[in-house]
Amino acid sequence: MRTSTTPQSPAPTPLLDLQSLVVAVRRRRRLWSCAALLGLLLGVAVAVLMPPAPTAVTKVLVAHQEDQPNDPGTLIRTDAALLQTTRIAEEALGTLKSSEAPEDFLRDYSGLGLTNNLLQITVTGDSDADAEARAKALADAFVADHVRRMQQAADAEAKSLLDQRDRLQGELAQVNKAIGDGSEETGPKAAANLETLFARRAELTSRIADFAQRAAEARVGTPQLVARTQIVDDPRAVRHSLPKSAATNGVIGLVLGLVLGLAVAAVSTVVADRPVLRREIAAHLGASVVAELPLRSTWPWQRRRVRTARARLAASLARTVRGSAEPVSLLELGCARPASAIAVDLAREIAADGPVTVVDGLPGTQLRDRRTKPGDPAVVGGERVPALAPHERRIGVGSVAPGTAWTDLGYLGTQTVLVVRAGHGSAAWLHTVARQLADQRIPVIGVVLVDPDPRDRTDGTLWDGLDTALRGRSERPDRPNGAGAPHAVPAVGEGRRRAERQPMWAAGVPDSDQEAR
């Protein structure tokens, strides 16, 4: 019975991985923490170095002839706008006997409608006394202008009503004259005309009295409005608390700096495209993450944890190296110092099996010039590799950073462990590293992730990528002794090891989408 399986299409890659973004932003906490701290300091500095100008506040009760209970505040907003006119500013400056331009004075005060009839005036000055004097003059000028406008409106209304009354009185005089002339006539027609004239005279008399009464009422209501328009809160200086102002500005600066820092960190993370999760680094390199190593910490309570992690990693790599006669290299990306330390620790672990030499292929001489301790392995440069004994174990340390001479990596080791710092290399460069190592027939045993995110819960094992992870190991042809690299091993042993390392594929089990024949 044959079993045919239908390959499942890979899941679509999201345009933006929110988990990776959150982890990358959290790893850049120095950036947004410094931005928040800078915002806090700037806010406090502004409060200390740029204190607010002396300010005075006064409140004016404003009465309107058109006041209605359901007024949405249009009238008081009109009063606040009228306060910001050069006419009122000029009158206030005239009271103060100041030569300041009204246009400049307009920038020193403002009006705010608290209710439909209560206007708050805020004025700044050179001192508290000057601010209070300015507020008093400005409030008096506004009240005088408001009273004048109400009186002008009342006078205009009364004059219009009196003009109407005078016109009707002239018409009444004509009607009275017509009645006097028609009283001498006799007959039914004359009687009808007189009756019409008498009705017209009564109507005109009533309308004249009404206009006279309305004119009187227009003048009578104005004094009440004038009396209600007054200053209800005398000008007083506003007291500013420096600690409170510094705290307020500091909190505002802290929030703005934090938001700006987070935004910059998020944007730079998306633009740089630097993987930080185990699953992403494993997928881009085509090799599984076999261990993690925190960075060297300056805190005393974390140094022991770092030493323990390094010792456990060295023991794990030693078991792998002992099982293979091929030289192993450690290739770093963004973590030269941890890679050097791992190489030395690994050499110490396997030193009991025989002589071990560390081949330094890192840029510079920091590994060779380091302070040695008793029992440390010998460290030589890459130029001394041909002089080493064939039976002597060696551990190469190199770099796969930009600018690497890829053809020289084979002299460091025919198989390698990548020591990669999380978030250091871009996705494109990780692809380049994986491709170049595959082209050089250097299989990747695994990836040691340095400085991983402590909250990363993703899996860095390539369950479905064994052929990619072990492509170099499973496809590397036999190397003749001395060809291609001075550290080749016998062909018989090479063939036996390749046979032992052939990947074993899991048997496919049909599911609901598979068809059994």
TrEMBL record:
Record key words, sorted: Cell membrane, Coiled coil, Membrane, Transmembrane, Transmembrane helix
Claim: Cell wall biogenesis/degradation is one of the keywords in the record: no
Keyword Transmembrane helix: yes
Residue runs in coiled coils: 151-178
One Pfam family recorded for the sequence: Wzz
Domain Polysaccharide chain length determinant N-terminal span(s) in chain numbering: 16-93
Segments traversing the membrane: 31-50, 251-272
InterPro entries: Bact_polysacc_biosynth/exp (IPR050445), LPS_length_determ_N (IPR003856)
Membrane topology: Multi-pass membrane protein
Main subcellular location of this protein, as a coarse class: membrane
Compartment(s): Cell membrane
Biased segments, Low complexity type: 482-493
Renumbered residue ranges of the record's region Disordered: 471-517
PANTHER family linked: CAPSULAR EXOPOLYSACCHARIDE FAMILY, TYROSINE-PROTEIN KINASE
Family statement: Belongs to the CpsC/CapA family.
Name assigned to this protein: Polysaccharide biosynthesis protein
Species, as recorded: Streptomyces galbus
